[in-house]
Structures are given as C-alpha cells and as structure tokens.
Write a structure and sequence with these properties.
With 249 residues, this protein is α/β, with parallel strands linked by helices. The chain contains 7 helices and 10 strands. A 5-stranded parallel β-sheet has the order 3-2-4-1-5, with helices on both faces. The chain has a 5-stranded mixed β-sheet with strand order 6-7-10-8-9, sandwiched between helices. Strand 8 and strand 9 form a beta hairpin. The N and C termini lie far apart (45 Å). This is Precorrin-4 C(11)-methyltransferase.
C-alpha cells in the first residue's frame, strides 16, 4: 500500500501530469484539499472510491484516515494544490507517516508561480538581466518567516522575486522591496493563475498597491518583482548561438 502525495496543479484541471491522472484513477481512497483542488479532478477517481475533503480536518484527523486506509491495504491519492515541494504542508504529514511506518511517494505538479509566469508571457531568467529566482512569502499568523528571510534581506540580491500568498500584504511587500529594487521596478500580480477567473495586473512597485486594490485581489495570488518583467535589448543566450559548436551526429 502506498500514499501518493500528488501535485494537483494551480487550478486548471488539465494542468496535471499523466502519472497523476493514472494514479488518481487507480486509488480507492482520495483525500483532497478542498477548494484549492479542481473538482474536475475528482471525476478521475474510481466510481466506488472514498473521497474525503480535508479542508476542515486537522492534521491528526488526516493522518488517521491515511493510517486506516493503510491498515485496510488501500492505496491513497492525497491531492495538494500546485506542487508538493513548496508551501504544501507535506513535510509534517510525511514525518508522521515515517513514524507510523506508512509508505509514500510524491508526484510533482505544476506550481502556481510557473502558471502565473505563463499568464504574464515572461521567462523569469533572462540573460544579462537575472539568472536567479527567489521564491518566498511573507509572515502570517500561522507561519512566521525564519530570521534572515525577510523581503529586505532577500531583495539585496536583485534577483527575480516571486512572493506567494502575499496579496493581503501588498503594501508591506512593496515597501520592503522598493528599497532594493526601486519604485520604478516592473512588478505584476497574477491571481487564480490558469483558472477561468484569472486576473493579471502589471505595473511597477510605485503603482502596484493601487492596481491590486482596484482589481479586488485579496488572496490566491502570486506577486512578481524584477527587471525581467520588462526586459528588452538583452543578449541572446549561448544555447542556440550560431557560434556554439554542435555535433553532427
């Protein structure tokens, strides 16, 4: 028996992997993260599958369901939004499964920030402009940021900044990043990336707060800050250069 932690993608039901689709269709138990996981994915479950919404469940209750399925010899599809490697709360679940001796694996998914970058039509690493991406968030009541991971500190690199779960703190984000990036730095916010109700806002750090409020964006959004968002005149990469030696075989 195996628990499959599955990245269910950013919202569009067809933005999952073939592996994820196959596993969901084979598992007799499916635990999914409420409104964060597209309801259409649940139609992939077997007709007689036990489907459980974990939105209002505690960690203990979720683990109890998984251990009960394990005891019954049933495979579990555990669906998380985006990709399980970031902001998924998978770490605390697998820690308990390790202690209980329950086997698991992880199936990657499309993270929200890549779907949001696609909506912007931008590469986040542009030659001569930025070759690094900082993926971060801001402190909330549920999760504080470790020392040294505040936006001012992270922003000193000048790398492309991607802030998850921060629309409700847009004033704080703008204030803390303007110090290193400048108020004229291109910035954007994408809410509900890949969904039918997707909202895209483009501007600068100077204009972003007013734009986000005007668009009514308060949650489920990704904030981008960096010169790559408006990069022009940059050199071509060496990858496809005519001067790059290429094998004839």
């Amino acid at each position: 028996m195996t628990v499959h932690f599955i990245g269910a993608g950013p919202g569009a039901p067809d933005l999952i992997t073939l592996r994820a689709s196959r596993i969901i269709s084979e598992c007799p138990v499916c635990l999914y993260a409420g409104s964060l996981v597209p309801g259409e994915l649940l139609t992939l479950c077997p007709d007689d599958a036990e489907v459980i919404d974990t939105a209002r469940m505690s960690l203990d209750e979720i683990i109890e369901e998984i251990i009960a399925a394990d005891a019954a010899g049933l495979d579990v599809a555990r669906l998380h939004s985006g990709d399980p490697s970031i902001y998924s709360a998978v770490a605390e679940q697998v820690r308990r499964l390790d202690a209980a001796g329950v086997a698991y694996d992880i199936v990657p998914g499309v993270p929200a920030f890549t779907a949001a970058a696609a909506a912007l039509g931008r590469e986040l690493t542009v030659p001569g402009v930025s070759q690094s991406i900082v993926l971060t968030r801001v402190s909330t009541l549920s999760t504080a940021m470790p020392p040294g991971e505040d936006l001012r500190s992270l922003g000193r690199s000048g790398a492309t900044m991607v802030v998850h779960l921060g629309a409700h703190r847009i004033e704080q984000i703008v204030e803390e990043l303007s110090e290193n990036y400048g108020s004229d730095c291109p910035a954007a916010v994408v809410a509900f990336a890949s969904r039918l109700d997707e909202i895209v806002v483009r501007g600068t750090l100077e204009t972003l707060v007013d734009q986000v409020h005007a668009a009514g964006i308060t949650k489920t959004a990704v904030v981008f800050v960096g010169r790559v968002l408006a990069a022009e005149g940059f050199p071509d990469s060496y990858l496809y250069s005519a001067t790059r030696p290429r094998s004839t075989h």
